[in-house]
Every structure is written in structure tokens, then in C-alpha cells.
Amino acid sequence: MSFDPNGVGVANGNIFGFPVDESTADLVILPIPWDVTASYGKGTSRGPQAILEASTQLDFYHPQLPKAYDTKVYMAPISSEWLEINDEFNQATPEYFRDLETIGEAASIEKHRELIASINEAHGALTANLQERAESLLSQGKMVAVLGGEHSTPLGLIQALDAHHTAFSVLQIDAHADLREAYEGFEQSHASIMYNVVNRCQNLHRLVQVGIRDISEAEVLLAASHPKIKTYYDWQLKTDEFKGTSWDQQCDNILNELSDKVYISFDIDGLYPYLCPHTGTPVAGGLSLEHVSYLFFKLVEAGKSIVGFDLNEVSPGSEGDWDANVGARALWQLVCATELSRRKTC
User: What are residue 172's DSSP bridge partners?
Assistant: First the structure.
């Protein structure tokens, strides 16, 4: 069946219904259906499937990317094996999460130490498998992205990029800093992803965080003292805006902190909560999708290269498709910015 970018979207199994397979793709998206360490709200493990289904409802004109529909992007199949492992753990963890709030963290970790050890082992295998898969794709000259799942999922890809590049920065869009160490006993918690990135990636130039507004004091102190971390808190961005600083000026400040090669880590809860009401931990405040898209394309216009990205924490909820609809559009912006970056470097 021929592809008509002006016609009705066709659910052919690939993201956006594009007629692309892995061998012909320039960008390969790896979906990771995992939300085991999420303790407040579950459902992000179903995010990749929901976004895939919603993606064919988009129109494929983009004002900053000519013939955006020619982008050769492929989304790999969602692993039923990892989804089954995820669901088995999620059936086993509710008592542990309840105990955390009733008997305390130390007692709960001791009581459930075997379960926590099993989850840490499985999570380590998930990350190792992703890293191996990403390294293989990178060696073929392909761009690689991750579609979660919870925000812990892209660690293997970021580690693969760390081995592939001599220097790169991470641009994190998020409501949370994710700088906690082994949160709730989980070594690769969704709340620890950036702590792990900073401590494991030898070639990381800088972690630049944007939109952070729900954070512990320990994380604030770490961010302030660590030479590789620069945090733009949501409250400060809004204060500067109220005093007359434009978003364009704020974006210039953000871009000045980044190296030439940039990995984008996009937690959907960085946006206003009405755009992602079912995400695992929604937080009042935040950015619009237009804010974030403007930053992505300004990054490319500034001559920096996007070397990969992730989109995480999209949860479809029990009814309706609003979260998936917004998630698909957020993914489209990431794909188009990455493709524009790729075209500029070819």
C-alpha cells in the first residue's frame, strides 16, 4: 500500500504509519514497556502502545522541516516478554509500597529485600539488553531513541551513547530532578535516572535540567554543588518571565550550557498537567508543548546536533486517548527536530 501524507493514516504497525522498516530507517525508536519502580501512579508501561495507536491520527506537515513525512523513522515491536515480566512485578509490589508509608523505608526494604533484589536484577538485565541493542544500531550509523515506560528506561541507551561519543550533554525536560540515589531500594528507580547518568557516563559534559519544580533538599544541594549539573527551576523561569525575560532569551541561556552534541530526555510531566493528566506523578506548573518544541528547534538552529532522545511517563489512563494524543505529538516534535539535525549534518 502506498503512503499518502495527505490522506488517512494507516495502522501498518509502524509509528505514524510510515512505510519504513528497520533496515531502511535513519532513526529507530525502541519501546520499553516498564513501570515497575513507579509507586504513585502506574500505567506508563502501556504508553508505547497507546502512542503507537494515536500516532496515525496526526497530520505530517511541519513548518520547520520540509517534507517531514519523508523522515525514515521506525519503531521496533513492543516486547511482550518484558511487558509480562513488568506485570508480574507490578502484581507483587503493592504491599511493599503500602509498607513504605506505614512502617517506614528501612523496615520495608528489609521485609521485602528478596523482591527488591529480584527487581534490581531484572532491571539491570533490561538496561544491559537495551545498551547492547543500541550499540548495534549506532554501529550501523542509525539514530536511536527510547519510548517509555517510566523514566528509568533510557539508561541503557544513554550509556551506549556515552561509549559512542567523546562528549555530549543531556537536556532534561522534567518536573522532577531524578537525582535520588537508589530510591526506595531500587537501584535504577525512575527517580534516580539522572543520578545514574551523572555517575556512570564518563563523557557527559553537562546535565541541563529544565522545568524542575518538585524536588528534595538533597537533590537541590547535589545540583548546586555538582560541576556537571545545571538546573533551571520552573519557579525561577516563571519569575524571570514575570519580570520581562522572554522564553527566547531563556532558551539562549539554556543552550549556552550545552555542548555541541545533545541528548534530549523528555519526561512528559515536564508539561502542564492538563496535557498529561494520567502521568505517574503530575505536578502543577510546567511548560507547554510549544515551549518545549521551540527549545528543541532553537537548539538545532544554534548548530548543535541531537544524538538521540527519549520520551517517557506517558500513561494512557483507563479511558480516553488525550494522554496518548499529546504523547504522539510530543514524539513527532522530537522526531522532526532530530531529523532536521540529521539533515544539517549529512
Answer: 209, 265
179 grid coordinates: 537525582
pTM: 0.96
pLDDT tens-digit readout, 162-189: 999 999 999 999 999 999 998 888 989 9
**Under DSSP, is residue 301 helix (H, G, I), strand (E, B) or coil?**
helix
74-84 residue pLDDT tens: 999 999 999 99
Domains of the chain in start order, with CATH, are 15-345 (3.40.800.10)
Q: Provide the angle, in degrees to the nearest 10, between the axes of the packed helices 94-102 and 80-92.
A: 40
Angstrom distance (rounded) from CA 76 to CA 30: 6
Cα separation, 171 vs 75, whole angstroms: 22
Residue 188 · residue 155 · CB < 8 Å: yes
Q: In what order do the strands lie in the sheet with 27-32?
A: 73-75, 27-32, 143-148, 305-312, 261-267, 168-173, 204-212, 229-233
Q: Which residue has the cell 551523572?
A: 198
Amino acid letter, 143: M
Give me the DSSP letters along 250-269. HHHHHHHTS-SEEEEEEEGG
Residues 102, 40: Cα–Cα separation, whole Å: 15
Beta strands 143-148 and 168-173 are unpaired
Distant-in-sequence contacts of 105-114, Cβ < 8 A, 24+ apart: 105/184, 105/185, 108/185, 109/184, 109/185, 112/185, 113/185
